[in-house]
Specification:
Helix content is about 60%, strand content about 5%. It is globular, with a radius of gyration of 19 Å.
Length: about 190
């Protein structure tokens, strides 16, 4: 689709903004809504699908689009600071062709604030559900540990280190009695 839009509008007028979300939050929300294909019904399947989507982004979009015409925005950043993210995107889209007037800036900020409830942790609901599941059984913790070893490095390669860490996600559960170790099992 990006190539099509670039061809129609031309490289001078076209900017692409892609949003991304932590793969576990993405998977948990899909599983909770039931809005998943029959062949993607597990956390493993949905994380693998998330990875494939990001690979396609890199292979088919990022590879041919001019770098200065593409931005990837974290959904978490967008919900935490919508005014900053949207204003930064607006400045980037204008690319020096014109500036944002103070009136336009104030109107945009006012509109964002009146339509958006900011949150420090947009994934809190999904993290809490995940942590409950992890606390419920050793088997769940072991399954997730395998996912860390299977996917952590690839996710880091795709979006950069620290952006969406599977290990940090489970560490946020503060599992004191049984932490996931580096060997794919539990202590």
């Amino acid at each position: 689709m990006s190539r099509f839009l670039l061809r129609i509008f031309g490289s001078e007028r076209t900017r692409f903004v892609f949003t991304s979300r932590h793969p576990v939050a993405n998977a948990m929300s899909q599983l909770a809504t039931g809005n998943v294909r029959y062949d993607r019904r597990s956390l493993d399947d949905l994380i693998a699908h998330w990875i494939r989507q990001h690979e396609i982004l890199l292979e088919e979009d990022w590879a041919f689009l001019p770098r200065d015409h593409v931005r990837i925005v974290s959904l978490n950043d967008l919900t935490r600071r919508p005014d900053k993210v949207i204003l930064d995107l607006w400045e980037w889209i204008l690319d020096g062709r014109s500036s944002i007037s103070e009136t336009d800036r104030q109107n945009l900020e006012s509109s964002i604030m009146s339509h958006h409830v900011q949150t420090d942790d947009p994934d809190r609901k999904w993290r809490e559900m995940f942590c409950v599941e992890q606390r419920s059984s050793t088997a769940r913790r072991m399954e997730y540990s395998k996912l860390i070893h299977k996917y952590e490095d690839r996710i880091s390669e795709l979006v950069g280190p620290g952006w969406f860490s599977l290990r940090r996600w489970v560490e946020s559960c503060n599992l004191k009695e049984e932490m996931i170790n580096d060997n794919g099992g539990s202590n």
